[in-house]
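Task: sequence design from structure.
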């Protein structure tokens, strides 16, 4: 199984969030990413949010350097 991650630094936000999350399973990563999106970015936990977050997952681990937004 390939480790997966999502990195807020890759996406523009007003808060300039620098959090990156990674996990061994997509299910575990999705739950952590949803909790973060709701608590920090004030999104609502909806099926659409979960679908959008899953589309942003990448294989591997987050880079040490901030990825370029866009």
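Answer:
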């Amino acid at each position: 199984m390939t480790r997966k991650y999502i990195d807020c630094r890759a996406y523009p936000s007003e808060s300039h969030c620098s959090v990156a999350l990674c996990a061994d399973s997509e299910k575990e990563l999705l739950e952590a990413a949803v909790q973060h999106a709701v608590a920090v970015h004030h999104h609502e936990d909806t099926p659409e949010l979960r679908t959008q977050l899953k589309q942003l997952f990448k294989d591997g681990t987050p880079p040490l350097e901030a990825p370029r937004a866009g």
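The beta strands are 4-7, 20-23, 58-59.
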